Predict the 3D structure of the following.
Amino acid sequence: MSPDTIGGLIRAQAVLGDRPLLVTDCGQITYGEAERRSREIASVLLRSGVGRGSHVAMLYDNSVEFATCFLGITRIGAIALPLSTLSTATEIRGLLRGADVEYILSANNYRGRDLREVLTAAIGAPVQGQLLSPELPTLRKVWFGIKALLAGTNQSDDALVAASEAQVCPADTLVIVHTSGSTSAPKGVVHTHGQVIRNMRRQNTLRNYTGDDRLFSNSPFFWIGGLAYSFLATLIAGARLICSGAEPKATLDLLEEQQPTMCNGVASTVLTLAREPDFAERDLSCLRRGNLYPIMPADVRPTDPELRCNLLGATETGSVSLYGAGDVDLPENKRGTFGTPVAGIDARVVDPATNADAGEGELWVRGPNVMQGYYGRERWQCFDGEGWFHTGDMMRVDADGNFYFRGRSGDIIRTSGAQVSPREVEGAISDITGGRLSLVIGVPDPERGQVVTAVLVGDTAFDADELRTKLRQRLSPYKVPRRFISIEENELPTLSSGKVDLKKLVELVCDR
């Protein structure tokens, strides 16, 4: 059995036995338990008709349940589709339809949300028994909770699971991870077993992530940073992963107990930990590496984060694509650098007007780390004739080959590690307001990177609280604008072409 498949990997790592793989607020799981429990799940899935190539969606947070379900699904060659627990019923319906989902494994609830209710609304029919819905013609069955999945099962059919695993090869699709992209329709990014596993082995070597480490990550498993760079990288390294979705005090209690040596994720989402009244008395001296600077000890925390190398990653590149020595201060002439391409990524900066290499322009990438493509799209729609993926990231590259981020060629808003498509939010506002023109922009923010802001055009009055409430019924929380501003049409800054000057619009909003 290939070590470059999930089945081969989890069987090989099971020798670590009682070593913890994942520790959360609600429990933990060892390497040995992960192999056994995922094998039981795989056996039930096989008997239920799930097999190599089946599309199985997952609706779980960073939990032991996610870990065992993901391993159970993928070790037999079925394809996992992690869905955001923040998604609305409307969003989930679109994802299920667009990805041809056949089966769903879901938690019963998440932070007070009844996920059975959400999925019933998404599917448009009661979620029970065999499903046959014109809205979702490929969907067949939904399970809520692992107990429901395993109900009536005495033991796993180990021979059946082993035989199924033996058929899986590194070229088989492992996962489809959705990214918002530059339009309102999310894109399903396809990655294979061998592609992700080999990529994470290279990344672990690059950042010296070994079995002696304990990693704290706040990246959701339904995004590539949490799934690959945290969870699967930990499984490969034989290390321990620590995750928490609890209140700040409980999270700090867990960190003090588990003593992580490394951390990664979205720094803005750990600010609440640093603001706890007793944070200064907490012992987090074990943290020596990472990018969650607000909670790191003073002796390793940078005085100027811009003199530490940033990381650039994307769902399409299977996590980090640009990397540099992140734990040492850089000289002033390297301020703001994102480092150089990681192994498995070829990169070039191209002038969009001429498609020639340039010192400043759009980042193009290709190589074994890069996705197979977008699900349901032909290759020419994803890559150019020479196999380059055009990222939309505008970069400058210096004489030493270091890359510096200059923004997006499109209009994606990046807020607290998430990506928001303005067109999706604008469409929702238009539907709710009866067609009122709006422009959704990202306004710079020191904590979130950008804040989603809606500019409503025209003199018609609106109730911001009511509009926000209605948007929350249709959009994930991070997509709902935090600010609403009204301006007259004649106040809109325009370019010579007549199009709205978005840069000046951002400045106008900041001034207000």
In short: Residues 350 and 357 are 4 Å apart (CA to CA). The chain has four domains: 6-240, 246-301, 312-408, 413-511. The mean pLDDT is 91.
